[in-house]
Specification:
The protein is of the alpha/beta class. The protein is built from seven helices and nine strands. It starts with 10 loop residues before the first strand and ends with a strand. Bound molecules: zinc ion.
Length: about 240
């Protein structure tokens, strides 16, 4: 079997805009890492409070449901650390305040690898528009990784809270048009799909979604000789 040269970090942080983004973007890779002993945490910027097409929906109930679904989806791939930032769904901006909160999470958890949305992508594969929240969260996260978390004088109040500077070694960016890392998820595709299935409020027909995810993963995998793959723009940061 070809070697995808995937490192096994001690800790990886996944920063996503909405409940279900982490599963679509990286669920198979996360499941693989957890199986290899990596500690993975999720930081979700919003609770998905616009994730309904019913204008009369009870938003508080929706938010509670989506949080529960996200925790179950994380648990399905072995992740029990899930934090939410309570940004407003559909209105996330890459503000300094958001960058500070992501920086705080990075300095507290000290991950070698951070996974998030590729913020440079406006049109994904010329198939759909990349949600503005995805771009905003990706941008704030990349900026938090470099240079903010690295340099102690940025948000130096973190030092007083016992949070030292931290150098992230690599970024893994999903929904990218420039994938340079295909991860073999042949052994974990079923768990990715099982995690996605937890987001029941988001799918009219989960079978259709599952078929689409499987087909897409298999098409990507074919390029590298794997049964299934996830693709990332992998950026290795100079030390
Ligand atoms: Zn999303």
């Amino acid at each position: 079997m070809p070697d995808d040269r995937l490192p096994t970090p001690e800790r990886a942080l996944v920063v996503a805009a909405h409940p279900d983004d982490a599963e679509f973007g990286a669920g198979g890779t996360v499941a693989r890492w957890v199986g290899e002993g990596t500690e993975v945490r999720y930081l979700i910027a919003t609770r998905g409070d616009k994730g309904s097409d019913d204008p009369n929906v009870d938003v508080r109930a929706l938010v509670a449901r989506r949080e529960t679904e996200q925790r179950a989806a994380a648990a399905a791939v072995g992740v029990d650390g899930v934090d939410f930032l309570d940004e407003p769904d559909g209105q996330v901006q890459p503000t300094l305040a958001l960058r500070e909160r992501i920086t705080r999470a990075i300095r507290a958890f000290r991950p070698e690898i951070v996974m998030t949305h590729d913020p440079t992508v406006l049109f994904v594969n010329n198939e759909w528009v990349n949600h503005p929240d995805h771009r905003a969260v990706g941008q704030a996260t990349v900026d938090a990784v470099f240079p903010t978390a690295r340099d102690p004088l940025n948000f130096r109040e973190h030092l007083d809270a016992g949070l030292g500077p931290w150098k992230v070694a690599e970024l893994f960016l999903w929904s990218t048009n420039e994938a340079n890392q295909l991860v073999d998820i042949g052994a974990t595709l079923d768990r990715k799909v099982a995690a996605l299935e937890q987001h029941a409020s988001q799918f009219r027909s989960f079978d259709e979604i599952a078929r689409w995810v499987r087909r897409r993963s298999e098409e990507l995998g074919e390029r590298a000789g794997y049964r299934a793959a996830e693709g990332f723009r992998r950026v290795t940061l100079a030390r």
